[in-house]
Specification:
9 strands; 11 helices; 5-stranded antiparallel beta sheet; about 325 residues; two-stranded antiparallel ribbon
Length: about 325
């Protein structure tokens, strides 16, 4: 209640003092969202008071996206001291709410067109998605998923398999084009369809400069919804063609598969950490699909077959 009182106190000092306020949602971080309404006008208030440091990045990345003609929310008011922003409201229709077997190809192609736009955004000042960071993310899987959630005790031989596979995956990821704007969480919960049928992008403050296929992997191997793998592979090739890349199908799909495995390994650790450290058990139900993606892909490549076998053993 104290948080809401602080927000109201600030709103009284803005042009939005007469707007009604209600809780809209929370996300996997410590941010909260409130919907502001006044007549037909709807806005969104982002409360980052528990992680104020993220606001500067959010504002900077928002401008990069807007400059690239990506539909990111306009920032209408800000209070960096308390950690509040008032944003354009894209409504409440997330991709996850509307994706189905009949429309997924059309909706995914619209989102892929947005990725092509995003990749034209400036990466100036963004952190680099290098081998150290790729590896650090994947290391979350051993610590939080295997050791703390399952839990299992890993032998030195098992640790060696994990470490070697993680290193090989990171090396493979770095073979594809780098230095592109990477949203890092471009999936069905962070993509919205506005009332004007535009694709709105949210939750991008952790953007980095990294690999070509990362956001495509987030989109098409989404831990919250699954479609046929062959359909997804066709969409990877659609992205390749939209980008005008001179690579064969096998290369494009290999790049996609390795960045997908990097992401799934990371996500296993993040979902487990959200539960064990932050008490957010809702993400546990998304672990089986994440594992399925990882197993289905890891069995295809010599570099990752040992990790696949290790998972079966434990």
């Amino acid at each position: 209640m104290e948080s809401m009182d602080k927000i109201r106190e600030w709103l009284y000092q803005t042009p939005y003092q007469h707007f009604a306020i209600e809780v809209a949602s929370e996300d996997a971080s410590f941010r909260k969202y409130y919907r502001l309404t006044h007549g037909d006008i709807r806005l969104l208030l982002m409360d980052s008071s528990l992680e104020k440091d993220s606001l500067a990045a959010f504002i900077k990345v928002t401008q990069k996206l807007l400059d690239s003609k990506v539909k990111a929310p306009q920032i209408l008011e800000q209070n960096l001291e308390e950690g509040y922003l008032i944003l354009e409201d894209f409504g409440s229709t997330h991709y996850l709410d509307i994706l189905n077997w009949d429309n997924h190809e059309e909706l995914y192609k619209k989102a892929i067109d947005v990725i092509v736009k995003m990749q034209k955004a400036s990466t100036s000042g963004l952190p680099l998605y290098d081998k150290a960071f790729l590896t650090q993310e994947m290391d979350l899987m051993s610590e939080w998923y295997m050791i703390k959630l399952l839990p299992v005790s890993l032998s030195s031989a098992q640790k060696e398999i994990i470490d070697q596979t993680i290193s090989d995956i990171a090396d493979e990821v770095l073979k594809q084009p780098q230095g592109l704007f990477v949203h890092r969480d471009f999936h069905s919960r962070n993509i919205m369809l506005t009332k004007n049928n535009e694709v709105g992008v949210i939750d991008y403050q952790d953007a980095m400069s990294g690999a070509l296929m990362y956001d495509i992997a987030s989109l098409l191997e989404d831990s919250y919804i699954e479609f046929d793998r062959e359909d997804m592979q066709k969409l990877v090739l659609y992205f390749r063609d939209k980008k005008g890349l001179d690579i064969d199908d096998a290369t494009a799909l290999r790049w996609f598969d390795f960045i997908s495995m990097q992401r799934h390994i990371k996500v296993l650790g993040i979902f487990a950490r959200l539960y064990k450290r932050d008490g957010k058990k809702g993400y546990l139900k998304d672990i089986p699909l994440t594992l399925k993606y990882l197993f289905d892909t890891a069995k295809l490549y010599e570099e990752t077959k040992p990790l696949n076998q290790l998972f079966k053993e434990i």
